[in-house]
UniProtKB/TrEMBL annotation:
The lineage of its organism: Bacteria, Pseudomonadati, Pseudomonadota, Alphaproteobacteria, Rhodobacterales. This is Glutamine-dependent NAD(+) synthetase. Catalyzes the ATP-dependent amidation of deamido-NAD to form NAD. Uses L-glutamine as a nitrogen source. L-glutamine binds at S175, R181. GO terms for biological process: NAD+ biosynthetic process. One of its GO terms (molecular function) is NAD+ synthase (glutamine-hydrolyzing) activity. Coiled coil: none annotated.
Amino acid sequence: MTQRFRLTLAQLNPTVGDLEGNAARIRDAWAAGRDAGADMVAFPEMFVTGYQVQDLVLKPAFVQAAMEQVEQLAAECADGPALGIGAPYAFGDKLYNAYWICRDGAVVARVLKHWLPNDTVFDEVRLYDRGPISGPYSIGPVRIGTPICEDAWYDDVSEALAESGAQILLVPNGSPYFRDRFDTRLSHMVARTVETGLPLVYLNMVGAQDDQVFDGGSFVLNPHGALALQMPVFDETIAHVDFVESDEGWRAEEGPRAVLPDAWEQDYRAMVEAVRDYCRKSGFAKVLLGLSGGIDSALVAVIAADALGPENVRCVMLPTEYTSQASLDDAAAVADALGCRLDEVAIDGPRQAVTDALAHLFAGHAPDLTEENIQSRLRGLSLMALSNKFGEMLLTTGNKSEVAVGYATIYGDMAGGYNPIKDLYKTRVFETCRWRNANHRDWMKGPEGVVVPPRVIDKPPTAELREDQKDEDSLPPYSVLDVILEQLIDREASIDEVVQLGHERALVEKVESLIYASEYKRFQSAPGTRLTPRAFWLDRRYPIVNRWRDRPRG
Ligand SMILES: Nc1ncnc2c1ncn2[C@@H]1O[C@H](COP(=O)(O)OP(=O)(O)OC[C@H]2O[C@@H]([n+]3cccc(C(=O)O)c3)[C@H](O)[C@@H]2O)[C@@H](O)[C@H]1O
Ligand SMILES: Nc1ncnc2c1ncn2[C@@H]1O[C@H](COP(=O)(O)OP(=O)(O)OP(=O)(O)O)[C@@H](O)[C@H]1O
Ligand SMILES: NC(=O)CC[C@H](N)C(=O)O
């Protein structure tokens, strides 16, 4: 009789530190697998603890609690499919990122991660010991080999597993999103199936943790990279895949194939999921933001409305004498299109009070940026007062271009707990608004149609901190600035290399200086959604005090 093996894939969203909650999700998915006749139910990397746990895993009490949780799950899920669960494993003075196999009421195997990722947002060499390459384990009629995430990005672990008798590769992942990430994952996994001749299951988690968004997109490949099943990106999904034994070995039967959205949609979805999960997982039902009539705060309002529902987003217009009627109208148009509450708090009175209080010290000094920044700080102060009073978290709105050059007031418009557009260059802000105006999906809680009026997209950006101010008074046009920033930040290009692309040396040097001189602002800035492998915070870690500038020597 033909042998069959049914594997249930739990592409689910864990919460870091919520051992009980994550265990409850495991029990539910295990029951779903049992009801579907599965032989095994698999979860992503470190699902019991959530991912990434960073230094939390260096606390022995936390690791102990996580291991006890797995032992308890093994005992509870005795009568039914086997379980594969990611969790840490402490043994003697060693600490491993491990995959625990539970069957018939007991832990029957532990696979230890061999390759510890230590670039971009990962620091696993600092946290874990490197495990030896573990052998395959048996579940029913099949021998399964488990390279844990990074282990499958190299050939040796999968090859060793194949040589020691693995018939299927099951790869649990905690692989965070960045733009066009999926293709890289797929090509690594296809390579593993070509080298080993084995089918491979790539199982990723979904959900956001601080800056990172895990985008799921799990899939199953037959040997030589033939796609058998594609799960959706970002959605929690449970799928069952059937393997059948043939003369050639085990093969996955064809299952559903989700269509993956384009990069604009995936970036937008990442920002929405990041806000949604940041709020839900840290206990906020509502947010607020300063809505200026400009494009950045408009986009943040739309993201927040799509994440939490318009009824949970408070927009606040805080005008001064420099605020134009067009800005007042545009802020009202955005709030109206979204169906969000819009409040107004005039800050001219407080500004006068601060000016008066400082007058005896400022006497003899001409007004300058100081006075401009007081307006921004009064906005931050007022918004934080609303946040304190109503328990709504303040979203901050600086795009990647502004964050890169420090074009924001520290303790002013930088005030806030989370910044959804921190890794989105301004030129992409324009395009993202156009994309959202033209597209609506069922995961968006905001309304469909034009939510950012074309006028907001097309007008010249301004901070309105003084008469007739425009961003281009201080900065080059964003179409030029963003190209230079992408070279200097995302590609770590030299000044010479950027000049060779046709940019003026003096301008490139100025941009470089602005980047280095504003490191202190970024260090004190809110976290935000990571969309690229060169996001500010963990992907790019620069010194704050830094005299180096890339200038000709000799
Ligand atoms: N290395 C360092 N380490 C630690 N702190 C450092 C520092 N260098 C300056 N500082 C501190 O930072 C202060 C200067 O920074 P900051 O006070 O932010 O002021 P600053 O960067 O000089 O001015 C804010 C800029 O953001 C622009 N902007 C754009 C868009 C919106 C808004 C808005 O507010 O709505 C503003 C505004 O036009 C202006 O160009 C210094 O007075 C000093 O206290
Ligand atoms: N009049 C205002 N009312 C409410 N919030 C404001 C106002 N002006 C500025 N802000 C807040 O400060 C942030 C920085 O604003 P500013 O308009 O100065 O620059 P910006 O980067 O062009 O942003 P935007 O495109 O949203 O205007 C805004 O995104 C908004 O959250
Ligand atoms: N958790 C991991 O080992 C992740 C590293 C891997 N290269 C990825 O991002 O997909």
